[in-house]
Amino acid sequence: MSKILLHGTEAICEGAIRNGCRAFFGYPITPQNEVPEYMSVKMPEVGGVFVQAESEVAAINMVYGAAGAGTRAMTSSSSPGVSLKQEGISYIACARIPCVVVNVMRAGPGLGGIQPAQGDYFQATKGGGHGDYHLIVLAPSSVQEACDFTYRAFDLADKYRVPAMILADGMIGQLMEPVELPPMRDLSEIPEKEWATSGHYGKERRVLNSLIIKPEELEPHVNELQKTYDEIYKNERRALSYMTEDAEIVLTAYGTPARIVKSAVNELRRQGVKAGCIRPITLYPFPDDAYAACAVRDCTKAFLSVELSLGQMVEDVKLAVNGKKPVYFYGRTGGNVPDEEEIVRAALESLKKAEAN
Amino acid sequence: MKVFQKTKMLTDAHLHYCPGCTHGIVHRLVAESIEELGVQDKCIGIAPVGCAVFAYDYFNCDMQEAAHGRAPAVATGIKRTHPDKIVFVYQGDGDLASIGMAETVHAAARGEKISIIFINNSIYGMTGGQMAPTTLIGQKATTCQNGRDPAVNGYPIRVCELLATLDAPYYIERVSTHDVKHVLAAKKAIKKAIQFQAEDRGYSFVEVLVSCPTNWHMRPVDALRFMGEECTKTFPLGVYRDKSQG
Amino acid sequence: MIRILLAGQGGQGVLSAGRFLAESGLHEGREVSYLPAYGPEMRGGTANCAVIISDEEIASPLCTVPDVLIALNSPSFHKFAPRVKKGGIIIVNGSISDSFAGRDDVSVYDIPANDIAIEAGDVRAANMVVTGALVALTGVVQERSILNCLREKFVGKQNVYTNNERAFRLGMQAVQNK
């Protein structure tokens, strides 16, 4: 199949549609408006449902209803809107309803700005709403991945009965690149959901609920959730390592900044500095094994986490490196994106600091 | 000879409602209506947050328990993806008319083909008697202990009247449960609301006045009398929209 | 790999010219990326886009140091001219901008794009004039790839197509004559 030029937002939609998403509920917010716009056209074409909800709060609860009743459903928003969805996401996580939430991150806090940022890492990977829960979080760094990861998110969500999130930055949303679209999946291939409240009378009554008022019942339920997260951790950690085998400095970044980091690594190598990088694909579960593997190498002197935030993922990197090597941080915020040169400088400084220690 | 039987649309679970509360009556009316219309095999219900939160244990069909105020949005998601099913929503006044007002108004404005049963007892029951958006002027609550003062607390919201300003709703009626005659009328209205959905006609909304003897600090009989004499003054009973009548 | 930054005012066709370039690169089997950036306003704001066309995988999609700058108005010329790579190319719309970059390590092509577009039949085709100039100067994509994109875009609008094609060719000639 030949490649076509698509926006990141369109690729997200195609990935969803081609893996059986048949319900989309959204609310306008920049920079992800192309998602509801695209879905409003495409959903009716494939016999799906599109509703422009009255708010992000309503949209996530429409997902709760549609996905609860067994349909593959998705909602999309950007940072402030995703904050509004957190109540619903917590309910969905507790009621164990698979669905996909897209966050095309803009700069915060508050209303912030509309340019790319990665300030929602904590929110996405540590739960986000109230209570003990996690989402499966995938971070695409190209338009192809925006499509492929959204496609995959639906399968992962169904497999574990856990909501999944596509954590993209505003740059991925606007970027256009060639994409090879996966074939349209036949809906009959998607396993039926034995728990869905689809109105099957006569069989055992199905109830989706997140109120478990007796402590002796809630604790086992939450433990059961945790068991699922443990299994996800065991099976689903993904990262791509680039030139790390002999690297003295290991850079790391996710999403589009990871591509700038890769350019910086190439430039450092040109300058004779042994640099490499790790790009997490899953942010939850965090691919700590990729970092641990570098941390034990004698050649590796330091790590540098590059983020469009003031330092969020760096905490997980530190946990993964576990004190074996120094972990430094370089970040920009407010919608600013560091260029290759800035990152090269930060890497050289990190290396110098590590050598001075 | 006909022997009275509990409707099959209710489970055998023991209702948790306070003595004298008329929630139980409304549960039965909804369940009987569904059974009598023969649509029990395709029902999906939405339970609210508030006194009726455990409704998912009582109605004998698939149920989803929604976040506070979000039931009409959840119902929208289900009904749009399952247009051949009967989706009903059961909500109290805090849930529907306070925190969930946006979802309420917009589901109505979109004309979602769902049936909403709105329980108005003019108080927050489960949390212990705080002021509701439907608390009457002068009525006491734990957050307006000298009685609702319009200068401080504003006025009660009349939801039927408000929704009747919208074009989409197919059927809107307010009924009461303060005596047998009114309970029978309430049954008729609820049955219509389900039937109109079964006939694919449109959005139906039935507001049911219900008593809360516990939080009104009244004996059940006095609570029923108060409902009939006082609540119906602020919330006049009647049909606010019925497109089946042309 | 060539990094092209196209900049101008919203409505000048900066983004669509960028897309034509990216589409053309794709059709020629190259790696491409197209990254638009614009302000919050729907009309009249600034617009720019970064187009990268490469034979290898494109890592960073940013264009902080472009090989080529196409500036369709004066503010974007002055804003971005200092960033152009040493030895790079600047194509500036001389109809509405001066062309003094204040540096001599880049080649500046002053093309009166608006005037040429008017001559071609439509002032809105100024974006195709500079695209023509770019193709003639760099050969980054083939002439016929751009024309194919135009044909696809303006299907059923023969008149618009003709004006744009003419603008594109006149743009090519404008630099070939220099």
Question: What does this entry look like structurally?
Answer:
The model of chain A has no long low-confidence stretch (mean pLDDT 96). Chain A has 357 residues and is α/β, with parallel strands linked by helices. Chain A has 12 helices and 15 strands. Chain A folds into 2 domains: 233 residues, Rossmann fold; 117 residues, Rossmann fold (3-Layer(aba) Sandwich), CATH 3.40.50. Chain B has one domain: Thiamin diphosphate (ThDP)-binding fold, Pyr/PP domains (Rossmann fold). In chain B, 38% of the residues lie in helices and 16% in strands. Chain B is built from 10 helices and 7 strands. In chain B, strands 2-1-3-4-6-5-7 form a 7-stranded mixed β-sheet, with helices on both faces. In chain B, strand 1, helix 2 and strand 2 form a beta-alpha-beta unit. In chain B, helix 1 packs across helix 8 and helix 4 crosses helix 5. The N and C termini of chain B lie far apart (40 Å). Chain C has 178 residues and is of the alpha/beta class. A 6-stranded mixed β-sheet of chain C has the order 2-3-1-4-5-6, sandwiched between helices. The longest helix of chain C is centred in the last third of the chain and has 19 residues. The two termini of chain C are 25 Å apart. The chains are: A alpha/beta (357), B alpha/beta (246), C alpha/beta (178). Chains in contact: A-B, A-C. The interface between A and C is medium-sized, with 21 and 19 residues.
Describe how the helices and strands are arranged:
The complex is a heterotrimer of chains A (357), B (246) and C (178).
Chain A (H helix, E strand, L loop, with lengths): L3 E4 H11 L4 E4 L7 H12 L3 E4 L3 H13 L4 E5 L1 H17 L4 E6 L15 H5 L10 E3 L4 H18 L3 E6 H5 L1 E4 L27 E2 L6 H22 L2 E4 L6 E4 L4 H14 L4 E6 L1 E3 L3 H8 L6 E6 L5 H9 L5 E5 L8 H17 L1
Helix pairs in contact in A: 1-2, 1-6, 3-4, 9-12, 10-11
Chain B lengths: L22 H14 L6 E5 L7 H4 L3 E4 L5 H11 L4 E7 H7 L1 H10 L4 E6 L29 H4 L5 H5 L7 E6 L3 H19 L5 E6 L3 H4 L3 H15 L3 E5 L4
Parallel strand pairs in B: 1-2, 1-3, 3-4, 4-6, 5-6
Antiparallel strand pairs in B: 5-7
Chain C lengths: L1 E8 L4 H14 L3 E8 L7 E9 L13 E4 L2 H7 L8 E5 L13 E5 L1 H8 L5 H13 L4 H11 L4 H19 L2
Parallel strand pairs in C: 1-4, 4-5, 5-6
Antiparallel strand pairs in C: 1-3, 2-3
